[in-house]
Design goal:
Chain lengths: 228, 608
């Protein structure tokens, strides 16, 4: 309760000070969002492709997302934005050089972020392994607008981990990988290493978790949502 | 970029979606939504019209208002539209029979597609025909009725007796006979008629056959295709249909069994056919079917691992049958032996158009006479394989080469020598011969040899270091600036060599990891899995390599399917322009995974 209140206050304050209208709108909506059941909470499933595992140094090269409304993934909302890193936030020139040729033809990071945050306004953000992606997004938005956005997040990896810990079967390494979990939930294999496919894969996994949970009590988002 | 390729990729093979243009299909896919239903939960009711639902994964039960079972549908199945159960349309409810992922198209969008595309709409009016189409047609060509006719029709004049008809059917081993008057078809008598109209009715078998025949049977024109035959059979509930030529004369007969066989050009059927052939010539005739079989296999969109395994099964079957035929000529072998497959055949990772790689392990040292026997056998089998399209190995790694046709003890010496020497050539030989699998004969010999050789390699760190050095030679086609590096060797001016720069490095990585852990299995997926289980490689790295191999292979196989369909020999070069931007990115990601795994290995063995 307190966390939510503090998070909402923080979002409102930042919205007031943010000169970028997309991020300001996003933050205002984030402040009033109250997710409870998966069936009536609008969500956005997101996956990033990064050049590495260090958000301070590595950059985003692709963003994929899809929207979930009323418990259904809308294929028409699927988006994948390839980011060209030639002209963008921050220094770290050595990486540009390597990627320039590869990513010529992609969009600027600002365009990608703008589209993403427009789509994600008023939504619960869904990730599989949220931490790294969130850190990268926050750093990128901060570099772009000077504001650090807040998020209300559902993390399918975190849900599964906590459910297993609760059943006293701590997961072993690799067991919580997206593909592995999907096959346990009897979802089809998708070609991975693609931001959009992974976002859709995460969205489907979340719906599967919600449906499974429903047979034995609803998946209570109040228990699993996280404020960042 | 709005990307619905996950959806279109799944739908494009299925009727009725195959009737849509790429643009129409993409528009349809954008209207889809996906939901997940736990087992036994309600999905939808057929009234009011809920649109169209597609089972992406799982299974769905359709029940009527009294919860009575109507039908069960599985992956790829459709529901939501009007369905005729037992001939009449009825309302129904759909429930998840298993945990299911369902794609849903709204009624509004569904109706729009129905209005825009007549072929798509026809599917929902006239389902069986399309089912048949889907099952029978390899894309683009329908089997013609004439192709189903294997023999002249069995006929009898109408004035003959029922007993004569029965005797004729028994002699000719057919289940029906055509009844003629002169040249004119009058009727047909089937097994079932003999049972129902003669035996059960207590009719005297010396009566004329005319009394029990079905008069003026429905016939087929020989110009038709299999669809028409099947439709006629379903419509009239027939199992036998006479086929007429352009001048109204009988040319043959098609049975329900013929149709069944026509649609089952399945690899496993090919395998059983191979075992039935009694001569090399017959096998060669059978091998004419390979290209079309491969096109089908590759087009079926099965997973890559399975496709390659089926291709390998067929090679194994040809090899085993040739060995049997050879032994029929030469007499039984003078001692136990094992015919081994090497390289991709051993790994069960064969692609269409592969050369042969094989060897012979003899249980003991052969005398001059025995040596001659195996030499002739090997010549026969290798020569036969060459004629079947598995061409001679340019490096002469074949059982017909005396060096690779030796006793178990000599094989062990071969391996010991390579492992001790560790020069480039030895390492190359190890790369070939560690991938070994018994195709015919005494598998124990192969197990003994591999246990010995893998054990030595595991204990020999220096040797493995040589192998690691060798691995560093096959770099994925990614340049310093992460651009694709294309090949240029004269004949293929441009393109990515997916085999040598994608698959070979992964195979090599898996092999060395397998040797570290003492794994003798040759299959790359199995090696990676086992190595991960034994802790020889991080699970995540094993998964990455498996994914990379699958992806690279899928690109290669679909490219080869196109080449085969165009009548070209399948190759390993894929022109970059033929890849979609998304696929290029995916491929690049896969290659990068290989680069990472290679660097990790180089670091471990301190190779530079």
């Amino acid at each position: 309760m307190l966390r939510r209140w503090g998070h909402a206050r923080r979002c409102q304050r930042r919205a007031r000070h943010c000169s970028n209208s997309v991020i300001a709108n996003y933050l205002e909506a984030c402040a009033v969002l109250e997710p409870d059941q998966p069936g009536n909470t609008p969500m956005i499933a997101v996956d990033l492709e990064l050049t590495g595992l260090d958000h301070r140094k590595d950059r985003i090269i692709a963003i994929g997302w899809t929207l979930i409304d009323e418990g259904k993934i809308r294929f028409g909302s699927n988006r994948q934005v390839l980011i060209s890193t030639g002209q963008s936030v921050g220094p770290s020139a050595e990486i540009h050089e390597m990627l320039d040729s590869e990513l010529a033809g992609g969009e600027r990071i600002e365009q990608g972020l703008e589209a993403l945050f427009r789509a994600g306004t008023g939504r619960l953000w869904l990730f599989h392994h949220a931490r790294l992606d969130l850190a990268s997004l926050r750093a990128a938005v901060h570099a772009w607008t000077g504001t650090k956005p807040g998020f209300i997040v559902l993390d399918t990896l975190d849900i599964e981990k906590r459910q297993r810990l609760r059943r006293n079967v701590p997961p072993r390494q690799g067991q919580l990988q997206l593909g592995r979990l999907r096959s346990e939930y009897r979802l089809p294999p998708y070609p991975g290493h693609n931001a959009l496919n992974d976002a859709i894969a995460t969205a489907e996994l979340a719906l599967a978790m919600a449906a499974r949970a429903q047979s034995g009590g609803a998946l209570d988002l109040r228990r699993y949502r996280r404020y960042f | 970029m709005h990307d619905v390729s996950l959806a279109t990729g799944f739908l494009q093979g299925f009727p009725p979606f195959d009737a849509l243009s790429p643009g129409e299909l993409e528009a349809l896919a954008r209207g889809l939504s996906a939901a997940y239903y736990a087992r036994d939960t309600f999905i939808l009711a057929s009234r009011p019209p809920p649109g169209l639902a597609i089972i992406r994964k799982g299974a769905v039960r359709l029940v009527d208002e009294n919860q009575s079972f109507l039908d069960k549908r599985s992956e790829g199945g459709l529901f939501g539209h009007q369905i005729h159960f037992h001939g009449s349309e009825s309302e129904y409810r759909a429930e998840a029979a298993e945990d299911s992922l369902i794609w849903h198209l709204s009624q509004e969008d569904f109706e729009r597609v129905l209005a825009d595309n007549a072929t798509f709409a026809a599917y929902f009016e006239n389902l069986p025909r399309f089912r048949v189409r889907a099952a029978l047609d390899p894309p683009g060509r329908a089997t013609q009725i004439l192709e189903l006719i294997h023999r002249d029709p069995v006929t009898l004049q109408a004035a003959r007796s029922i007993r004569e008809a029965a005797r004729l059917m028994s002699e000719e081993r057919v289940s029906s006979v055509l009844i003629m008057r002169g040249d004119e078809l009058k009727g047909i008598v089937t097994d079932k008629d003999l049972r129902d109209r003669v035996l059960a009715a207590g009719l005297d078998p010396s009566e004329t056959v005319e009394r029990v025949m079905t008069r003026d049977p429905e016939t087929l024109a020989c110009s038709g295709d299999v669809d028409q035959a099947l439709l006629a059979m379903i419509r009239g509930n027939f199992r036998h249909l006479p086929v007429m030529d352009g001048h109204d004369r009988v040319t043959g007969l098609v049975t329900a069994g013929d149709l069944l066989r026509a649609q089952s050009e399945h690899p496993l059927r090919m395998v059983s056919d191979i075992h039935k052939q009694g001569s090399l010539d017959a096998l060669i005739r059978l091998s004419d079917r390979l290209p079309s079989l491969f096109i089908r296999l590759l087009g079926m969109g099965r997973n890559v691992e399975q496709t390659e395994r089926l291709v390998t099964h067929i090679t194994d079957a040809f090899t085993a049958r040739l060995i049997q035929l050879g032994q029929q000529q030469l007499g039984p072998a003078p001692m136990p032996f094992a015919w081994v497959a090497l390289g991709s055949q051993a790994r069960e990772e064969q692609a269409p158009g592969s050369d042969q790689d094989n060897g012979l392990i003899l249980a003991r040292e052969p005398n001059h006479h025995e040596s001659e026997y195996f030499s002739q056998l090997a010549d026969f089998v290798c020569g036969g394989l060459d004629q079947l399209g598995y061409h001679y190995c340019p490096g002469e790694v074949m059982a017909m080469n005396a060096r690779w046709r030796v006793s178990l003890r000599d094989w062990m010496r071969h391996f010991d020598g390579w492992i001790e020497e560790g020069d480039p050539k030895s390492v190359m030989f190890c790369g070939i011969f560690f991938d070994m699998r018994c195709v015919h004969g005494d598998a124990q010999l192969v197990d003994t040899l591999l246990d010995h050789a893998v054990g030595r390699a595991r204990d020999h760190q220096i040797f493995r270091r040589f192998m690691a050095t060798n691995i560093a030679r096959h770099r994925p086609p990614i340049g310093f600036f992460r651009q694709f590096v294309q090949e240029d060797d004269g004949s293929h001016s441009e393109g990515l060599n997916l085999k040598h720069r994608g698959m070979v490095p992964i195979t090599e990585l898996a092999r060395i990891r397998a040797l570290e852990s003492g794994i003798t299995a040759p299959n790359t997926f199995a090696r990676l899995r086992l190595a991960a289980e034994l802790g020889g490689i991080a699970e995540a790295d094993a998964d990455s390599l498996r994914d990379a191999l699958t992806l690279i292979n899928r690109v290669r196989l679909s490219h080869q399917a196109e080449q085969l369909a165009a009548g070209d020999p399948p190759g390993h070069f894929v022109p970059i322009e033929s890849l979609s931007p998304l696929m290029r990115r995916n491929l690049k990601a896969a290659f990068l995974l290989v680069v990472h795994a290679q660097s990790a290995l180089s670091l471990r063995y301190q190779v530079r």
